[in-house]
């Protein structure tokens, strides 16, 4: 039972992250975090120390809180991460503060509250993991060190002790490929552009929207060194990349007899950009290439002995024979241990979830059994909705981390399965012969639905679920806004029972609202919740605005709920327009379509423009700021525009990474909707059928024009969020109440 997980965890600890580390250095890192977070003056009221002996069981992080009142607040942790998590606990539960991506609420009471006696907390999870390979592209791709520093602080405060650190790996691969005899032109042809590197790293793509400029490699190496240094200062374990078996086509020129298999296409891309080449596991080049890369990587960056690699991510292996799958898996692992005898392989378990028809019991056993037990650490990536541990006998005895995926593509849209998230880790821990050794947050994109991540971070330090989620979200709102307000609390309880109450295997945090999809007559507008709850939560937040409007986090949430309400209205007006078209009622079609495309969407763009977190201009400026020349800035901006929209030269994964940003709504979604509604109106007026295929051709021209455009957008907010939200509310809420939509 639980002893199995502990035993496996001990094996992992012996091989990875087991060094005693620098207690004084980790304490200094946390003290510096306190000063960055609170300012030097308030930080002087805190005493921070790191003491390994605080953990009753080695490897299970523990913190202790005491003091306050007339004395210093004393924060002790068994690691720097544990001390940071203890600090966060004090700020949240004793001071009513809140730390978040969208901004923090850090109004400290005076004097600082006293901790009754001494509060000691030990996590039941050896590992608290963070990130998804895709997060590197959907959220982190254009970050500078200042933004990374804030994220690593957020990670420490939320108790994260295991995270990917994958920046700069292409620079290392470039060294290896050049040493093997590939030309610079061949290497440039292989790498994707920056916004698509995640899928190049997993073998799904090559070439697309590349090449990588020389300056990119230099900057990423510098960034990776700073990221690793800061993570290690806190006592975190960075996960470095390893060789998964995918190689450039040019490897066949250098080694004409090399045994490679060309994989199938991925994501509707043709073989110009996908169909990667996979080295045969028995080819003598495999261990040479794998060990060359890891040796060069660890020489540059050092190591903490955990490495990530994904050979068959969303790609069907060349053979379903267990012997082949075992050999392919063993080859990856053996290339790791040839360089690092203590290597542990972190594997995203998405492959088993994504293609369950291929991955039968024999195939799963072949992969999981090809690595010594305890040397493969599996991320059960989508465990809150579709856990794999339950159908693989706890990953055949290999240790695993129960992960919440939650978000796809970095989409905006209120979504969560909080009840499943709340119950999931405990259920996995109590599963017969469970080998669960941690919890994780693995979103494809961040900076959305912060309530979900706050809950998951808290659960990583709890043995049991939160007993009363309604009370928990009420407290969450009070901490987030700095004051308790009955209407704000009531609004959050409504959101909890609606948008944050998705249940079942169909729950996916991927926004398919008509607002952000290419229009058609077959769009699905069904939702898992009662829309009335969203509109009532909107009303309640606006009623609280007189008291809470000074809070930036409140304004952010008011905008986010307003955005959600407009998203619901778009669906409802679309249904009206579609019904009118099918009934050939031109006047009704023009009325509903006119409101949707000429009133509602412009109003949405205007309110989004009032908050810096919802600006296309900021998004694109972030990309441009990485560049060292105007031409490079244009290239990075086009990369970013492609990812947000077409996701390929022909709309290959169209709108997968959709966002609701001021500028994107006005110049991408709105023109599409106007073209669609005009086409429907022409069809009715002239008595000719609407041709979806022709519309798709026409609208692609608009979509492509947006990607190739050089138009600049504001990167500073304009207008008042509360006033603009009220304006939309007063116009549309009475229509909602009076309509038959409910």
From TrEMBL:
Say yes or no: keyword NAD present: no
| Entry keyword annotation includes Phosphoprotein | no
Pfam families per the UniProt record, alphabetical? NAGLU (PF05089), NAGLU_C (PF12972), NAGLU_N (PF12971)
Keyword line: Glycoprotein, Glycosidase, Hydrolase, Signal
Taking every annotated instance into account, which residue ranges of this chain make up the domain Alpha-N-acetylglucosaminidase C-terminal? 472-731
**What sequence ranges are listed for the domain Alpha-N-acetylglucosaminidase tim-barrel?**
128-463
* InterPro entries hit by this protein: Hex-like_dom2, NAGLU, NAGLU_C, NAGLU_N, NAGLU_tim-barrel
> Can you give the residue ranges of the Alpha-N-acetylglucosaminidase N-terminal domain?
28-114
Record GO biological process: system development
GO molecular function terms listed in the Swiss-Prot or TrEMBL record: alpha-N-acetylglucosaminidase activity
Q: What's the Enzyme Commission number for this chain?
A: 3.2.1.50
Q: Which reaction does it catalyse?
A: Hydrolysis of terminal non-reducing N-acetyl-D-glucosamine residues in N-acetyl-alpha-D-glucosaminides
Q: Which residues form the signal peptide?
A: 1-21
Q: Which family does it belong to?
A: Belongs to the glycosyl hydrolase 89 family.
Spell out the PANTHER family in the cross-references.
Answer: ALPHA-N-ACETYLGLUCOSAMINIDASE
Q: What is this protein called?
A: Alpha-N-acetylglucosaminidase
Whose protein is this, by species?
A: Sapajus apella (Brown-capped capuchin)
């Amino acid at each position: 039972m639980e002893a199995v997980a502990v035993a496996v965890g001990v094996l992992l600890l012996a091989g990875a992250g087991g060094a005693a580390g620098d207690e004084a250095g980790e304490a200094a890192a946390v003290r510096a975090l306190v000063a960055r977070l609170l300012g030097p003056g308030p930080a002087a009221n805190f005493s921070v120390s790191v003491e390994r002996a605080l953990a009753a069981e080695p490897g299970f992080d523990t913190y202790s809180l005491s003091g306050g009142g007339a004395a210093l607040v004393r924060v002790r942790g068994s690691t720097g991460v544990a001390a940071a998590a203890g600090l966060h606990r004090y700020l949240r539960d004793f001071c009513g503060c809140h730390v978040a991506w969208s901004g923090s609420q850090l109004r400290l009471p005076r004097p600082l509250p006293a901790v009754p006696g001494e509060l000691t907390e030990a996590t039941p999870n050896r590992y608290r993991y963070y990130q998804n390979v895709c997060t590197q592209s959907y959220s982190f791709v254009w970050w500078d060190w200042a933004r990374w520093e804030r994220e690593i602080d957020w990670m420490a405060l939320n108790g994260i002790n295991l995270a990917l650190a994958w920046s700069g790996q292409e620079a290392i691969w470039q060294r290896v490929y050049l040493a093997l005899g590939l030309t610079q032109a061949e290497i440039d042809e292989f790498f994707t552009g920056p916004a698509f590197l995640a899928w190049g790293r997993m073998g799904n793509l090559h070439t697309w929207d590349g090449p990588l400029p020389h300056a990119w490699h230099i900057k990423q190496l510098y960034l990776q060194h700073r990221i690793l240094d800061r993570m290690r200062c806190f006592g975190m374990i960075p996960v470095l990349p390893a060789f998964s078996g995918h190689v450039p086509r040019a490897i066949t020129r250098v080694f004409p007899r090399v045994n490679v298999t060309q994989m199938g296409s991925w994501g509707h891309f043709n073989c110009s950009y996908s169909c990667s080449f996979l080295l045969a596991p028995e080819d003598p080049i495999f261990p040479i290439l794998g060990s060359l890369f890891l040796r060069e990587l660890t020489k540059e960056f050092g190591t903490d002995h955990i490495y990530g690699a994904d050979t068959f991510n969303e790609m069907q292996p060349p053979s379903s024979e267990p012997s082949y799958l075992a050999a392919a898996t063993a080859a990856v692992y053996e290339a790791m241990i040839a360089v690092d005898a203590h290597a542990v392989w972190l594997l995203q378990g998405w492959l088993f979830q994504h293609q369950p028809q291929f991955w039968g019991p024999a195939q799963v056993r072949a992969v999981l059994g090809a690595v010594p037990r305890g040397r493969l650490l599996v991320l059960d990536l989508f465990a809150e909705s579709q856990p794999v541990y339950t159908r693989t006998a706890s990953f055949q005895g290999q240790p695993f981390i129960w992960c919440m995926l939650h978000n796809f593509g970095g989409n905006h849209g209120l979504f969560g399965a909080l009840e499943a998230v709340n119950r999931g880790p405990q259920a996995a821990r109590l599963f017969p012969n469970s080998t669960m050794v941690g919890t994780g947050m693995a979103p494809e994109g961040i900076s959305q639905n912060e309530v979900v991540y706050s809950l998951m971070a808290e659960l990583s330090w709890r043995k049991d679920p939160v007993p009363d989620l309604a009370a928990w979200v009420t407290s969450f709102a009070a901490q987030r806004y700095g004051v308790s307000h009955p209407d704000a609390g009531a609004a959050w309880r409504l959101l909890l029972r609606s948008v944050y109450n998705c249940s079942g295997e169909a729950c996916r945090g991927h926004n398919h609202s008509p607002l952000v999809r290419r229009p058609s007559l077959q769009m699905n507008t069904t939702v898992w919740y009662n829309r009335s709850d969203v509109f009532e939560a909107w009303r309640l937040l606006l009623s609280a605005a007189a008291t809470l409007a000074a809070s930036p986090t409140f304004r952010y949430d008011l905008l986010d709920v307003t955005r959600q309400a407009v998203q619901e209205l778009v669906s409802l007006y679309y249904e009206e327009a579609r019904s009118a078209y099918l009934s050939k009622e031109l006047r009704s079609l023009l009325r509903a379509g006119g409101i949707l495309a000429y009133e509602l969407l412009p109003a949405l763009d205007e309110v989004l423009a009032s908050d810096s977190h919802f600006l296309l201009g900021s998004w694109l400026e972030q990309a441009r700021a990485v560049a060292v020349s105007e031409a490079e800035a244009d290239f990075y901006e086009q990369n970013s525009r492609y990812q947000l929209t077409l996701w390929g030269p022909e709309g290959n994964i169209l709108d997968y990474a959709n966002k609701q940003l001021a500028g994107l709504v006005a110049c991408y979604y709105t023109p599409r909707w106007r073209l669609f509604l005009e086409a429907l109106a022409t069809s009715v007026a002239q008595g000719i059928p609407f041709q979806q295929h022709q519309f798709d051709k026409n609208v692609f021209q608009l979509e492509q024009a947006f990607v190739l455009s050089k138009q600049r957008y504001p990167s500073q907010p304009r207008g008042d969020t509360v006033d603009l939200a009220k304006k939309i509310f007063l116009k549309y809420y009475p229509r909602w109440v009076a309509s038959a939509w409910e």
